[in-house]
User: Fold these one by one.
Assistant:
Number 1:
Amino acid sequence: MPRSIAEPVVPTPPKTYKLNCQSVVQGRVMPVFPDTESRVIARSPVPGSGPRIFPSSFCNERCFMRAVIQRVMRASVVVNESTTGEIAAGLLVLLGVEKNDTIDDLKYSVNKAVGLRVFEDQQQKMNLSLVDVGGQMLVVSQFTLLGDVRRGHRPSFVDAAEPELANQLYEAFVAAVRERGIDVQTGIFQAQMAVELVNDGPVTILIDSRKRF
């Protein structure tokens, strides 16, 4: 009796989703889901399987994405004595990702950062956005924004996202801003960075995706 030959297994290609008109691969950049239900992305316990998806009820009221945004005359970031990102007039965004952040947190943060009317018009009033003035943006990941000092003096970072998830959301934030036609420069994720800036104003805005301030 002839020995049966098993058919070769054809690997299933990874699913792709849309992120502000950009096609991205699941597990590499945070996908935008076709339904309107808010969902939570978390690390998968199986290597290479991409993030797990949980209903929004998994997230409690402490879930958020936080950013410190400064209007600058210029800003730069240096890693190992090499400049990795540098801008002229525009916005410096320090971005902190919480461990249970959702796609809604990402959308909110991107829309706020891009649409902030913190640049002066002809009447010297803050009335123009980064898009209006043709400015640049420097985005630097900063998990220390999630530091909790309500107890004691040593910050607790238990609410900060794990590096894998934080990097996915950080890259997704940068990609979404670039799709708005903005020149975005960045630091290097998890690197020891030296950030230099000249704050114009000074103007500093705090953004919390859960709108607590």
Note: The chain is about 15% helix and 35% strand.
Number 2:
Amino acid sequence: MIVQESTRGEVEEKMGMMSDFLKMEYLESCIKQHRDFDIKKFCNLKLADLYANRGMFLEAARNAAAAAEIAATFKEKVNAYMKETELWVRAGQYERAEESFRKALASGNTQEKFEMKLAIRELYRKQGQAFEKSLRNANALKVYQKLLEISDEQEKLEIKKKILGLYKKLGKIREYSVLQAQLEGNRL
């Protein structure tokens, strides 16, 4: 697709007349043909949103990562990296989520780092609950195990109880017994 628009406003205007799949194709063409970083960043972020809305989280995360790499300010980088982290979590790519989260932390100040740590814990918690709700217990277990690694001591007991229930549902008797003994040992 040939892109004749030269400003962000023109790109947005042309996108308004298209379906989602045409927007995706058009935005991909814009990224390939434009040299302006602002337009590329805009196109990558829009593509990330479009792909995420369609449940294509891997592609969405890749576009968010591309936007983060060309972001001009630290705040833009933090926002793009956090969006990328969320998309990797939703895609089930926890190692990549951790990597992008580390990049976000490196780009933020002390206050932002604190807020990002709270946000990532909430993100994992919501994803675990969504997996539980849709009866995807094995996926929920992975998410809660990851959440256990990054949580503070107050939250760990609650998370361990959720993991205990998932072990039982999944028939992981050995792990269930070990964790149950550990939890009962903490109560004494």
Note: The mean pLDDT is 90.
Number 3:
Amino acid sequence: MNRTLRSLAAPTPRADALTPQARARACLSLFAALLIGTGIAACTSLDPGTTAVRVHGMVSSENGLPISDAEVSLTDVEPVQTDIRGRFVVENVPIGRGLATVRHPDYRDVETEIGVTGPADVIHVRLQSLRAVRDHIVESAVAAIVRSDFAEAHAILASFEDDEPDPRLSLLDAVVLWRLGRTAEAHLAIARLDRFPGTAAVVATLRSTIEEGFE
């Protein structure tokens, strides 16, 4: 029997016969082999000729809660809706860079650039509630008014566009426009404020103040 045959025929040492160092080396070798095998499978799972893939994703609030019924639009693909868990699946998404747009009536729209590389890609988008956005606008505008920086307050208020009116924004807008000397626009803001229930006393005070201030 030559050396090669003797080598193959030699009995494999039992695990309990190995030293602790040998057992550790054997475990590391096995772990490395598993990692390499997994990596090869992942790298070769995408056909070089593939131009579009399925993409998964999730839409959540700033607090991490799932948002259902959000509309998700990816470049060159029909929009889809998120399910009750805030998840969505988009088919035939072109590989490469594109845009993801997410909309929901209770949240601020988000448009972000994405890079699609394969079917394992997951898109996670967080939306900020319009209420939270309005609260931030109000706080920032009030801070500017306290500093008597009415131009800055007007810029802050003008930066926010929302289909759902907010009496706080109308009130601040009226005050800022009045202090900037834009009386006609201030009266328009007061008229918007007057449409909200429970604002009659504030509206009367504003109108009286403006009239007295510009006699």
Note: Helices lie at 3-9, 20-44, 130-146, 150-158, 167-179, 183-193, 200-213.
